[in-house]
Prior knowledge:
By secondary structure, the chain is mainly alpha-helical. The protein is 55% helix and 6% strand.
Amino acid sequence: MITLAAGPDWLLLSDIAGIGSDAFIVALLPEQDGVLGSQAVRAGAHSVLGRDAPPGGLQRIIQAAAAGLAQLPVNVVRELRVTPALTASPQRPTARQLSWLRALAAGGTVARLAELEGYSERAMYRMLQRLYAQIGVKTRTEALIRAQTLGWLVADGRE
Length: 159
């Protein structure tokens, strides 16, 4: 079970899922949200549960896991159906764009990144939105998960 509260938690989920173990991963979310739940599933969670779920919720998920089943709230399933899957090969970001993703993954803010790059915060935000679209995602969290999954957060000399 992993609580997803901040960016590093999402990267940890992606890392755990990437190991390929037989572990059943339950994502605990700050709230029961279809978008966050679908992101957790895409990052490797098998089941999703809001932190405010009734006490029997976790018990039902554990019973489902023991039976080889995943349990997802309806709003997560709906979001998984309507949001395009992140399976297409995205266009690889430039070295500069990769440095932005790495800075965000390390906990940097858009304001700090804008300051370092010499842009206004608004301009930096727009450039990041274009980068997210380029790699086929909508949010910073999705971008960091995708970048981690594709190995872009580690400098590899291919830039």
